[in-house]
Amino acid sequence: MFAKFRPVLAVCFFAFATLGLSAVSVAQVQSSNSQNSGSEAPSAESARQALIDLLEDPRGRQVLIEQLEALDLPEGGGTGPQTAAEARSQRSDAADTGSAADLSQESETQTAAPFAVRLGEYTQVIMDDFVAVWDRVGRSLSGISLLADGTITIDRDRITTAMLQVGLVLIAAMVLFKLGQWILVTVYRKFDMTARYGGWLTRALMLVVTTAADAATVAIGWGGGYAVALLSFGGLESGVTLLESLALNAFLITGLLKVGLRFVFAPERPELRLLPFDDPSAVYWCARLGFVVSWLGYGIMLAVPVANLSISFVIGNTVRFLVTVFAALYVLTLVFRNQQKVKAGIRAYSEGLSSEITKRTVYRLAGFWSLVTYVYILTVLIVWLFRPFDAVAIIMRSTGLSILTIMGGMLLSLTMTRAITGGIRLPENIRESLPALQGRLNAFVPRILKIFRFAVFVITLLILLDIWGVVSFLSWVQSEGGADLIGRYSSAFLVLLVAFAIWLAVMAWVDLRLRSRSGYVVTARERTLFQLFRNAFTVVVMVMAALLSLSELGIDIGPLIAGAGVVGLAISFGAQTLVKDIITGAFIQIENAINEGDVVTVGGTTGTVERLTVRSVRLRDLDGTTHIVPFSSVDMVSNFMRDFSYHVAVIGVAYDTDIRKAKAALEEAFRRLKNSDFARSIIGDLEMHGVTNFGASAIDIRARIKTLPGDQWGVGRAYNEFVKDVFDEQDIEIPFPQVTYHAATPPAAADLIAQKKKRSKADPSSVKPEDDAPPDPDH
After folding, report:
1. How confident is the model at residue 671 (pLDDT cuts 50, 70, 90)?
2. Is 713 exposed, middle or buried (0-12, 13-18, 19+ CB in 10 A)?
3. pTM of this prediction?
4. Residue 472 main-chain phi, psi, to 5 deg
């Protein structure tokens, strides 16, 4: 059974070994940076006191002697280990003075080393590190054996005095802190309705304000503790002791870290909660993680120094190890017990996300969140084991900066997510004046915010990696190349942002001009011209913004402009019809020949103008057929809707009709038309032109009615109905063409008739009456 799991165990062993090496390297880098900065260097007095305490401790003195004996000194009488700069200098000198053959041989030897050998060397290093870790664990637990065999004794009076000092200032600080928390909760309850029903901006502002007030309660407790420390144990003359300062500093840092937890989980402020936790889960995680923070904060920053100063450094090292290991085991157990619950919660939250990419990313992250947590906990533990003296500074600094970075990134991301989901809402008066502005903003701003949100995610990840020493993102940002690259991309983005703002302002102005107001009606010509201007301006802004952005990025746009000119010239030669369409369409619009909604005849097609561009016009005729007519094929435009129109009525009457009576009937029909609903479309009297034509079967009388543009057809149909009614009342005939047919007699019938006539002449009595009837054509 065990043989089946050997590959798995080997992979796990290799992974945790690599994790240990990474942790050690991170700790060394962070320690080197802190030492080089000089801002955290201990004072000479504290270093002297620490050395005195170490020499007074028998066990500590023995460990120091062993370390000095094991120290490798450089050959040639050197006084200390080589620095990294000296080692690089010596390697550089050897490379300059050595022979080329030796260097070539060494290079070939390194290159020719088999993979198995290199893997074995790497495994050996890993095992040496594990042995070092195990040795470090043994040394950390040596204080227990020294206490057991009596080598180290505990001074009870000293411990009692230290506990009294620490307990008094901590109790005072805690009482003031709890009092401030009670006041804060009481005040917040008065504004919980505002937070519950307010907008996202109101809730974000209240979250920041309440968090600042929460931190202020910690500061008040910290200040009260210092006041108690000054007034007790000797008064103002003795000042604050080191133990009291350590206790209050532990209270301050631990309290601020808990403020950060309450900022994220908001157990008592559910309306302001950032993460999608329910109330029991928020209280659970805030309490458990708060316990871990308190355990580590007071254990490392208070219990360990008290053990060092009151008992021995060896006991302090043992206390540090036990505090760290217990906290790591507690958090690992906490993660293991809630692994599936948190996984299900994250995946349930991902279902409510709007972006499909974000939804899939969060869904997949839910599968290995626990693995990331395990790696972080083990990394912290290993750093603490390898660098026990400066591990607190490294871990607290890295963890604190990581929490602040994650909270800042989450706050920005959630703010943008709410803006993306809810959209941009403008005030009511602006929506009434510019109804299309909000739609345009919601069409572009959410997409821009999605880009910003992705950029925030990437920058947050890079900053986290920089905090833990994996990459040097901030150093690269401060470098000349990084600053130049960021500056160029920022300038390009600023150009795009300004171009978008200008385009949005011009579009809002166009919408305002196209909005009908009291006393002002937008004509079809204005609507068409502004739409053409809108399209042309959009193209110009897009081209200019693209060229300027590329120029800010360092791309030479001269060849692009020249190439665009050549391509434009080639297109103009190859697309002469298109150019003719555009030029003709531009002049048609300038001359106000066609507008949307007009009834026109262009290219031999008559219809209503549905859409007008700079290249073509789209018509819909009476049958509902759509015609797209390019302007290059238009040599004449007939517009039926300019200023006014006429309905020309040509009425035919019979030749025997009295013309004066017919004219009077037409006048009567017009009077009836004026009394109908069509009176508002008539802008003049009836123009009687009289007899205009003598037709084959009728006399044509013409009359004309002046109407509003576009109403001539409806007025004409109604007028024809009234004319028919009046003619029927006055018995005026409206003739219609008639045809008279004459049937020719067949030859056989003509001979038979002639014979009958001859017989009748010879003998009239022999002719029968039916013989005089014409023959039946069907027979």
Report:
1. very high
2. middle
3. 0.45
4. -110, 65
Ramachandran angles phi, psi of 648, nearest 5°: -100, 115
pLDDT single digits (tens) 226-252: 888 777 755 555 567 777 888 888 889
The fold of the 645-729 domain, in CATH, is Alpha-Beta Plaits (3.30.70)
DSSP structure string for 65-130: HHHHHHPPPPTTT-SSPPPHHHHHHHHHHHHHHS-HHHHHHHHHHHHHS-HHHHHHHHHHHHHHHH
* Other CB atoms within 10 A of residue 686 CB: 18
CA distance 489 to 493: 6
Q: What is the distance between the alpha carbons of residues 461 and 443, in angstroms, rounded to a whole number?
A: 29
Q: Dihedral angle at the C-alpha atoms of 61, 67, 70, 74, nearest 10 degrees?
A: -120
Give the per-residue pLDDT at 47.
56
The CATH number fitting domain 586-639, selected from 1.10.3430.10, 3.90.550.10, 2.30.30.60, 2.60.120.340: 2.30.30.60
Query: What CATH code is assigned to 479-574?
Result: 1.10.287
- 605 forms beta bridges with 602
The pLDDT-based confidence of 114 (bands split at 50, 70, 90) is low
DSSP-derived 3-state class of residue 553: coil
Where along the chain do the CATH 3.30.70.100 domains lie? Answer: 645-729
Q: Of 605, 613, 447, 595, which is closest to residue 527 (Cα–Cα)?
A: 595
Q: What is the dihedral of CA 390, 23, 299, 238, to 10 degrees?
A: 10
**Three-class SS state of 593:** coil
Residue 83 burial by Cβ neighbours in a 10 Å radius (0-12, 13-18, 19+): exposed
- Cross-strand pairs, 701: 651, 691
- Name the nearest CA neighbour of 153 among 308, 311, 304, 306: 311
**Which ranges in the chain are annotated with CATH 1.10.287?**
479-574
**How far apart are the C-alpha atoms of 649 and 704, rounded to whole Å?**
6
Dump pLDDT digits (tens) for 708-721: 988 888 899 999 99
Strand order of the sheet with strand 699-707? 645-653, 699-707, 687-694
What b/e readout covers 476-512, taking b as 16+ CB neighbours within 10 angstroms? ebeeeeeeeeeebeeebbebbeebeeebeeebbebbe
> Where in the chain is CATH 2.30.30.60?
586-639
For 561-591, letters b (16+ CB in 10 Å) and e give eeeeeeeeeeeeeeeeeeeebbebbeebbee
Query: Residue 701 in contact with residue 726, Cβ under 8 Å?
Result: no
Picking from 110, 130, 107, 166, the residue whose alpha carbon sits closest to that of residue 20 is: 130
Q: Are 445 and 437 in contact (CB under 8 A)?
A: no
* Distant-in-sequence, close-in-space partners of 245: CB < 8 Å, separation ≥ 6: 229
Tokens representing residue 427 in the block: 């005030």
* Amino acid (1-letter code) at residue 620: R
Residues 6+ apart with CB under 8 A from 222: 173, 248, 251, 252, 255
- As a whole number of angstroms, the distance between CA 593 and CA 636 comes to 10
Cα separation values, 732 from 705, 717, 722, Å: 22, 20, 13
Name the H helices within 141-241.
Answer: 142-148, 156-189, 192-197, 200-231, 235-238
Count CB neighbours of 410 within 10 A. Answer: 17
DSSP letter assigned to residue 517? B
| Cα dihedral 233, 234, 235, 239 sign | negative
